[in-house]
Design goal:
There is one protein chain. The protein is α/β, with parallel strands linked by helices. It is built from 14 helices and 11 strands. The protein binds glycine (GLY).
Length: about 350
């Protein structure tokens, strides 16, 4: 078992990473939760795969549980589903001392976490992330949100779970596209913070070897995120480096209506493209973009920026909520493992990118 503690001023919590910890999930919950009711938010796919097993495990520990099941996919991070969850929580009689379990990928973590942060002004929740992306990124750090018709994550808060329980065996049932989704973010961590991790990732040449090392890989990513979040919980400065590749990545996702690329794939395109440009502008050690291309090739992740209307992409970036009083915080690399935040007036973005 690997374990990490996130130490924040208002909350401390533990992340555990262990293959097959799912079968002991009731015992793990019992360590921090003394109540009896648990509302489990999950999606239909996961419910079909793991619902009965989860029910048996939690009943064995005498928990009184109720499932709240939504459709899989980004569309579920909606106001309608939030209302549906509140209604189900009320029907089940969930009180302030009770618990929500977010059992799923990033969508479930964000939706259930936001419900937990607002229902009765906040009740405890535990994250059990089941996708690679959620296990290395979205389940930790306390960002929870729903989408509004005007854009992604526009209603949200910082609300940390009481515990994160990571079982890499869930990844066995994950389609390859969603493994690549997580891989894009894993490569991002190496790019922004850890050159030796980058080199280690380059040595991995097979799926088998990748999965043999998965506990270590998840641990290293969570540890990088922990160190960043502990320094800047609310995303005012250093936490922004986690957005390397995201300015373009988010824009590409939106440009294709979230249908062509997963988040991690879009971030991968963004990391390579922005690094090519930042080398040209003299911010990045020459050869860095090539290294990013090499690692993306190693994992069979597309690095070719699609032929898009760049002024459309720039327009989308202008509308992004992260633009702060006319400035954009662009995350660039000095070199692999070393990142910087460059403030750029939004009107200069076109010149930088084209
Ligand atoms: N996923 C970026 C962050 O949590 O800040």
């Amino acid at each position: 078992m690997k374990s990490l503690d996130i130490n924040l001023t208002s909350n401390n919590y533990n992340i555990i990473i262990e293959r097959d910890i799912f079968k002991n999930i009731g015992v793990e919950i019992k360590k921090i939760y003394k109540g009896s009711k648990i509302a489990i938010v999950t999606d239909k796919n996961l419910y079909a795969l793991y619902g009965n097993k989860l029910k048996d495990i939690l009943h064995y520990e005498n928990y009184n549980i109720s499932f709240i099941v939504v459709d899989p996919g980004e569309m579920s991070k909606s106001m309608e589903n939030l209302t549906y969850i509140y209604t189900k929580l009320i029907e089940f009689g969930i009180n302030r001392g009770d618990l929500i379990l977010a059992f799923g990928g990033g969508v479930i973590g964000d939706l259930a976490g936001f419900a937990a942060s607002t229902y009765l002004r906040g009740i405890d929740y535990i994250q059990v992330p089941t996708t690679l992306l959620a296990q290395i990124d979205s389940s930790i750090g306390g960002k929870v949100a729903i989408n509004l018709p005007q854009g992604k994550n526009l209603a949200g808060s910082f609300y940390h779970p009481k515990k994160v329980i990571i079982d890499p065996n869930f990844l066995n049932s994950l389609p390859n596209k969603f493994i690549k989704d997580g891989l894009g973010e894993i490569i991002k961590y190496a790019c922004i913070k850890n050159n030796s991790f980058f080199n280690k990732l380059l040595t991995i040449k097979s799926n088998t070897y990748f999965f043999e090392n998965i506990e270590d890989i998840i641990y290293i990513c969570c540890n990088i995120k922990k160190e960043i979040v502990e320094k800047d919980e609310k995303d005012y400065n250093i936490r922004m480096i986690l957005n390397f590749g995201h300015t373009l990545g988010h824009a590409i996702e939106k440009y294709y209506n979230y249908e062509r690329y997963t988040h991690g794939e879009a971030v991968s395109l963004g990391m390579y493209y922005i690094t090519q440009k930042s080398e040209i502008h003299g911010y990045t050690q020459l050869g860095t973009a090539n290294k990013i291309k090499e690692i993306l090739l190693n994992y069979n992740i597309d690095y070719n920026f699609p032929k898009v209307n760049m002024s459309e992409i720039i327009k989308i970036i202008h509308l992004d909520k992260k633009n702060n009083s006319g400035n954009l915080n662009l995350i660039l690399l000095n070199k692999i493992g070393d990142s910087i935040i460059k403030k750029l007036p939004v009107e200069n973005l076109g010149k930088f990118l084209i």
